[in-house]
Amino acid sequence: MDYKRICYTSFSYSYLPKAILLARTFKKYNPGWKVVAFVTDKEPEGFDNSLILKEFDVVINTDEIGIPNYQSWLFRHSIVEACTAVKGHAMKYLLDRYSPQKIMYLDPDIAVFNEFSMVDQLLDDYDILLTPHQVAFTDDDSAIRDNEIGSLKHGVFNLGFVAVTGRYEGLKFANWWADRLYDFCYDDIPNGLFTDQKWCNLVPAFFDNVKIIRDFGHNVASWNIYNRDIHFLKDGSLVVNGRPLIFYHFTKLGPVGEVMTAKYAKTNYEVYELWAWYKRKVKELSQNNIPDGWWFYNNFQNGEKILPEMRCLFKSRQDLQKQFPNPFQSNGFLNWYVDDVRSVN
Amino acid sequence: MSFNFLSGFLPGNVLSKLRGEYINDEMREMVLQSGMFDEDYYFRKYPDVKNAGQGALQHYLSRGWKEGRNPSEEFDTFYYLRNNPDVIKLKTNPLVHYLLHGKAEKRNAIPPNPKPTPPRPTPEAREKQPSKPDVIEIEMNSIAGSGYFDEEYYLKEYNDLKANELNPVRHYCLFGWKEKRNPSEKFNTAFYLEKYPDVRKSEINPLLHYIKFGMAEGRKPLPELISENEVQNSDEKLLATEEAEKQDDVTLIRESGLFDEEYYLNENPDVKESGADPIEHYCEFGWKEGRNPSPDFNTVFYFQEYEDVKEGGDNPLLHYIKFGRGEGRKIVFAEIGGSEFDDITSPKNNQDIKEIQLIRESGLFDEAFYLKTYPDIKEAGIEPLEHYYYSGWIEGRNPSKNFITLDYLDFNSDVKQDRVNPLYHYAVAGLSEGRIARHPAHDYYSVIKSEFKKDKVLYKESGAPVDMENLSNDIRSFSPASKLIISLGHDNYLKYRGGIQSCVMQEQIVFNEQGHVYLNVFPDEVVYNLRNNSDWQGGLIFNGSHTGTISAKELFFFLEDIVTYFSASFLVIHTLLGHNITFLKELFSLNFVKSFLWLHDFFTICPGYRLLRNEVEFCNAPSVNSNACEICKYGFIRKKHIREVGNLFQNGNIDIIAPSEYALKLWAKKVSFNYNETHLIPHKQIKKRGKRSFGGIDYFNNNPLKVAFLGFPSYFKGWTYYAELAESLKADNRFRFYHFGRASGNHCDVITNLEVEYRQDDFNAMSRSLKEKDIHVVIMLSLCPETYSLTTIEAIAAGCFILAYKDSGNVTKLIEQYNSGNVFNSKTELLELFQSGEILVRYEDACKNGLYYSDIETNRLSYKLT
């Protein structure tokens, strides 16, 4: 099998419909790439796993990719943190396992509308590609606050997309990113962290051969739609400020995403057509047996819900991490927590 | 195109309302034309109607028939109802039923063997004639002499009637039995109705029923006369009847297309798990538990909104199907209304008063807008803000043009979840938090988010089964030398008005005039797609008479047979919409001299037959693999659709008829079908009469330029743009804006609405109205390409100068052909034309070059080619 070019994504089962849509749209325009799914979850009872297998070339559970002390490490993360924290290790894993020439990560809430030809070509000359949240500044006060300041808080680059080569600089990036994400992939803005994303502010400083894609057709989303106009040409193709739309990042499906989109897309109705399509498709693909808000790692093995304060405590105490290598077990950390913490409170 | 059928772009609930209004119009027209309504008779017979100052026909159609009044001596309302229980069930006006179906089905309008009908008297003679007793009088006579009516008992028992001057028997016949009053000690009205559901269902006066039939049938007038055995038997019968009634209800709902089984099961996993039939569950339990039958229908809202439904404890969906829909009652989306039966209109409490006051003081509620937009509130004399506060928002009404209730709820799930009045929320929090009160692209957004359901039945045309023998005999009464034309339409053209329907009717008249047989086939379920269902049924209209409904199989055998009877048969396809693929394949295999396909729309290219991507923008029918088709709501079935249509063309023996060169060129460029010849037949033609006079440019120093929009004020026809233009220029005295068409949908203060009454045979009604109002400029803003634009023809015939949007299809060709206007490229350019005053100069130039008054004449359509 030819794994020279790999696109991968990372998700838990509740994001499966979106991830399937990503895989389908990506393959439609990019048949030369393999699509790999990394799942940080276990399926609910009665779920037919063949559904997922047929959508991707390879499906890998992140408990199989050599993340040290997986259970203990996972316990320290929320669902979003966990699914982003595995991205670095997953990249390393793919580079080791398949030795691809080119590798690209895409968030599961992305849909693809064209061939990634620019990315493909740029990776011939560059080793790391990133897309900024915004590629042009604005004078609009509200957009400065929501978007530019948003980027200062959450990271200049949107890590819904990153692409590297299998060459030295690409491998160096993968190792560095995986290391940082292992220890510091938290949503902790006051301490300068925002999951896997903010780390990449350092990429242009740390690595050579980095290319920042400032093309309007890549990674279009509510945070940059204020200066991007989407239209259809007479032949039915989608363009953004005259450039082909490569991929749209449908971040925050639901009222929050809709409000931000309406606020900045204003009368550009083509954007609402995209959203309406996305919602329709996700709904269609949601006809499986995944309960709302499902994440296997939400609970201890006995079914009791893991509270954020439990994760927080465990994260902050290395002694507990040592004492309970698998904190999900109900007779371990949970017992200790109930006896020692709850009884005190 | 102007020939898009109105219904295509309207949501179901709006559609049914419009249809309700339309049927009423048609009812009036049909009844008047039938000669079976005699206004003099009605007023003479029912002076209360005359004294109340009501129109006789309106009264009869709306209430009179329910009160048993007769429209003329030629029709006995109650007699007809009594003898036709199916009509009672339909709840339809019996005279209209008679004219539409009963007459053809040879039902009696008056009792058989009546005394010979004297010739209709002259008005003078009528004055002198004693009036004939009406149905109520006949009932009264039967009851009064029966020994079962005790006047003394009645007046004593019901004190309230003493002040009433009405004769007690008459009171009982008109109202008393409905109020469950007893006529004497010998007859218990409530018992009789409860015991005998057939009587209850038929809505016949129960005492009359007892006297005429019940007594002979051994029915009991009083509960104490029932023996124990009878109680048991009768209970069993009752149970059986009730079960049958339940099944009828389930079938009615199933056939209505208003129940979304998939939605119901997904929303109610408990029902799914139980394996119960979703419709049966809804009828038995679901509605009582406030569950919704589809995303479009909120059970609780309907139940609480309508007192009669609430009082009757009726299943809301069933009520809507049976009555509400026809009466234009409002429904709201499932997610908007409540899910529990709490009384939203409960008496005001202090908190309500405080909140209402706060909204009032915020200035966010526009009372004038509310009353203009919702005339029903004005008519009902309800305080508008209170209405909005208590129920308007639940019904999705808007408190001002800048606050869209549904947008606000869509954007703010917290507000929706808490069921807070959205305007109140906006006033106290949303505004200061910068929440969005109206989607910036509201008009597009609401169209875009509406889903296309490929198998959704928009409406169903129910008809009695076709009497094959009769029809066959009728057809064979024509000489085999006559031509047989089989035409395909998408609905009953006798009933629904639209471009295609009008063409079919015109065509039928022309063929019939020449002595040929015209048989129209239409799907009984109107679905905007090709069908593949095995239970597909077609409606048949033979030479302008609706003959009923028939299965695809029977229809094919029937057509196969009659095609061989005639020496020359032709197939004319006006549309394939809603037709069954298997039936079509069989039909196409029959031996027609020629087959024609009309390009009234682009359904053969895409199920979105207007070629509007997601219904918002002309798409130019791109490749099915394009981004546009990927994200368009029609995209997912387009590939299959084109393949299926293409298969029908396999033999290459179909001729194409286009109403315009524009339609033909676009279509031919986009298809790879194997067709035969092409023909160009415009629906109408114009005959110049005289040049429009022009008072010189100085005329406009003192008079405004009159600008008009013609037709239904829909998004697709560019109404939004037109309203924006008028709004932008409202302070500019040089212009005055008009709308010619139905008022509904025109909520714009600065546009004067003028209704135009159409008649099928009056092609010049619109242009006459335009001439009468001396309209100078007509703006054609259609967003979808018109295959043929009747309104443009009407504007040209009225000597108007036309401004047309570049993508409006044949419109641009027509104004070029008749030298009657200009094309503009964008909204901005259009506004600029007015603001700069350039439009006045252009109008002047056009007048100098000659704008003509003309007559519109119809074409002979397909007849030309047979």
Please summarize what this structure is:
Chain A has 345 residues and is an alpha/beta fold. Chain A is built from 13 helices and 14 strands.
What does this structure look like?
The complex is a heterodimer of chains A (345) and B (866). The termini of chain A are far apart. Chain A is globular, with a radius of gyration of 20 Å. Chain A is α/β, with parallel strands linked by helices and 345 residues long. The longest helix of chain A is centred in the first third of the chain and has 20 residues, at 79-98. Chain A folds into two domains: 5-285, Spore Coat Polysaccharide Biosynthesis Protein SpsA, Chain A (Alpha-Beta Complex), CATH 3.90.550.10; 308-344, no CATH class. In chain A, 42% of the residues lie in helices and 17% in strands. In chain A, the strands form four sheets. Chain A has a seven-stranded mixed β-sheet, with helices on both faces. A three-stranded antiparallel β-sheet of chain A has the order 11-12-13. Chain A has a two-stranded antiparallel sheet with strand order 5-14. In chain A, helix 1 crosses helix 10, helix 4 (79-98) packs antiparallel against helix 7 (168-184) and helix 9 runs antiparallel to helix 10 (269-285). Chain B is α/β, with parallel strands linked by helices. Chain B has four domains: 6-117, no CATH class; 350-449, no CATH class; 459-683, Rossmann fold; 685-863, Glycogen Phosphorylase B (Rossmann fold, 3-Layer(aba) Sandwich). Helices cover 45% and strands 11% of the residues of chain B. Chain B contains 43 helices and 20 strands. Chain B has an eight-stranded mixed β-sheet, sandwiched between helices. In chain B, strands 16-15-14-17-18-19 form a six-stranded parallel β-sheet, with helices on both faces. In chain B, helix 9 (135-144) crosses helix 11 and helix 33 runs parallel beside helix 35 (635-648). The model of chain B is unreliable at 1-23, 114-133 and 342-347 (pLDDT under 50). Chain A binds chain B through residues 113-114, 142, 232, 234-238, 245, 254-255, 258-259, 262-263, 265-269, 272-274, 276-277, 280, and chain B through 410-413, 434-436, 439-441, 444-445, 448-449, 451, 613-614, 616-617, 619-620, 622-623, 626-633.
